[in-house]
User: Which sequence fits this backbone?
């Protein structure tokens, strides 16, 4: 069952999950991969709903998004995926098949070629409309010292589909 929902209907749930466990950011290039993001958010730019996701340049996901110019975000609800979040947030897709290791199921996206994660209930499909590499000298010194051994590219993904596949 797929139920389309407005992109902003579940912003509170997305923000809560971002700060308490993370979201699955899935990319597709040489293979399908997912990573966990704990930063990012949904906003409105250029007359479009946008999901901003930061991805460090060193991450396998970075090269995947660079090739495909799209990504999906799947939002886990509850604690059932806590171990998968922990594993996918601490291992590289270069070295592991995270879907296999965590018993996650990739389902085809509705409007992009990158899959979603079946075990999650809420999904965003995004096409990159802008990206920006961080400029270290433009970052406050205290943030730079605390958070940055490796900088992010900020991907602005137009939300081209938002839907539920389960209960929230």
Assistant:
């Amino acid at each position: 069952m797929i139920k389309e929902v407005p992109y902003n209907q579940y912003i509170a749930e997305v923000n809560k999950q971002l700060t308490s466990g993370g979201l699955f950011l899935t990319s597709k290039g040489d293979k399908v991969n997912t990573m966990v993001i704990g930063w990012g958010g949904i906003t409105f730019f250029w007359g479009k709903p946008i999901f901003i996701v930061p991805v460090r340049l060193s991450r396998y996901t970075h090269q995947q998004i660079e090739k495909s110019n799209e990504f999906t975000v799947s939002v886990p609800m509850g604690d059932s995926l806590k171990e998968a979040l922990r594993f996918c947030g601490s291992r590289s897709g270069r070295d592991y098949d995270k879907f296999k290791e965590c018993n996650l199921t990739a389902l085809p996206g509705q409007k992009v070629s990158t899959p979603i994660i079946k075990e999650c209930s809420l999904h965003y499909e995004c096409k990159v409309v802008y990206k920006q590499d961080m400029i270290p000298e433009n970052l406050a010194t205290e943030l730079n010292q605390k958070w940055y051994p490796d900088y992010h590219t900020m991907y602005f993904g137009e939300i081209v589909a938002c839907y539920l596949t389960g209960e929230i």
